[in-house]
From TrEMBL:
It comes from the Bacteria. Keywords: Signal. This is Ice-binding protein C-terminal domain-containing protein. The keyword Cytoplasm does not apply. Residues 1-23 form the signal peptide. Residues 143-166 form the Ice-binding protein C-terminal domain.
Amino acid sequence: MRKILYATTAIAAAAAMPQAAQAANIMDSVTCSQVGSGTFFCDQANATVGAGDEFLVGNGTNFIGVDFGTGTLELTALRGFSLGGTVLEFTNLTNQFNSFSFIGSSVNDFDAGDITLVNGVLTLDFIDTDASAGDSVQLAVGSVPEPATWAFMILGFGAIGGAMRRQKNAARKANVKVSYA
């Protein structure tokens, strides 16, 4: 009976806690803005991360597709372009970006030095770069863990500690000494 009670309590606790988030999860709210002197702009200011491109960047014609995945960001050239003074900023309103790593780029003159992260705002500097259709930039982005992440971790440590203690007590009880008089 006790085992059923413990199992039911653990399942109820796990169900009551919200799911932990990663960077740019599905349903996160992300913003895009052009802060340079270029003529390319984001097609919308805010988007909810989901399937496909969240933002399209261009000057009336779409030139770049911006796609957030779980922990990733990929910008893909939809057609050839020269970006001039375009600088794009991205902010994750749901889970603030706190780290990034440059995976790669096939865009001419764009590398890790063109990316900055300050106060949760990810900035991509495309000044004087050009690309052909299909060229892309890939980043891995990280965010600050939610409180639910910490709660699940602490709950897990507690469960492991409880299991170890129970196993230790069971081993002590199993050491039964039989003596004959």
